[in-house]
Design a protein that fits this description.
This protein has ten helices and no strands. Helix 1 packs parallel to helix 4 and helix 3 packs antiparallel against helix 4.
Length: 260
């Protein structure tokens, strides 16, 4: 009888425990579901952030690539434009050179209204081209011949050439213009530039002779003597050597008189 009662009691307790578990489980399940929903929401938010960051990165990359592409296109367009301008400038300059060689300086400078606009406009309108740059050289030379020394200096200073011979000549012409203006210090500066610019036996001695003369006019006979000695010692093949020797004798003589 006692065993039967115990079995009944055990069954009742088991039933009661099962009932309690059933009553608790909905809350556990709800909490678990909320937890997983929170985790999924957080994961989703993180995914959105990652996508946004990746999108921003992609947009940045595409933006940089787009800028590079625009730059390359712009560069090609600019080169095409310059090449076209170069052809036009050379045509204009060819006719202007004809007048320059004939000493028709006004036509060379101002043009003839048919074949060329003249080196003044060529140097201004085609300044980005080699022909336009060379036009500045012709312009400065023509102005120098016309006695317009300040204008000549301005034009020649705008000239810049890859050809070392022409560039040295431009420096020398600037020196000539300063000599005419009796600005001897400036003349010395540009004669030095001319003589130091890719020295050679053909043109450099001429620039050194001018440099020596400028020093003599400044009564600086020691420096004049150095210029002449440079020709004699470093440019022995030059036709200027004998002339430099005579100039050196003169400078040495004047140096002695000045010392006395």
């Amino acid at each position: 009888m006692a065993k039967t009662t115990d079995k009944k009691t055990a069954k009742a307790q088991a039933k009661s425990q099962k009932t309690e578990e059933q009553e608790i489980n909905p809350d556990i399940e709800a909490g678990t579901e909320q937890f997983y929903q929170a985790v999924e929401a957080d994961h989703l938010q993180q995914s959105i952030l990652e996508v946004s960051e990746n999108k921003g990165l992609r947009n940045g990359i595409f933006g940089v690539l787009g800028a590079i592409a625009i730059g390359v296109i712009g560069l090609f367009a600019y080169q095409f434009f310059v090449e076209k301008q170069e052809v036009e400038a050379q045509k204009e300059l060819f006719a202007a050179q004809f007048y320059f060689e004939k000493d028709s300086l006004n036509a060379a400078l101002k043009g003839d209204a048919t074949t060329t606009v003249g080196v003044e406009k060529i140097s201004e309108e085609y300044s980005m081209t080699k022909a336009g740059d060379l036009a500045a050289f012709y312009e400065g030379t023509a102005l120098l011949k016309e006695g317009k020394f300040n204008e000549a200096i301005e034009s020649l200073k705008e000239f810049g050439a890859d050809d070392y011979l022409v560039q040295a000549r431009a420096y020398s012409l600037i020196g000539d213009a300063y000599m005419e203006l009796e600005k001897l210090d400036d003349a010395v500066t540009y004669y030095k530039k001319a003589s130091n610019h890719a020295p050679n036996d053909f043109f450099t001695p001429e620039y050194l002779m001018k440099l020596g003369l400028a020093y003599e006019l400044k009564n600086d006979y020691s420096m004049a003597a150095q210029a002449y000695e440079t020709i004699i010692e470093q440019h022995k093949k030059s036709d200027m050597v004998n002339k430099a020797k005579r100039a050196l004798g003169r400078a040495e003589s004047m140096k002695g008189k000045k010392a006395a």
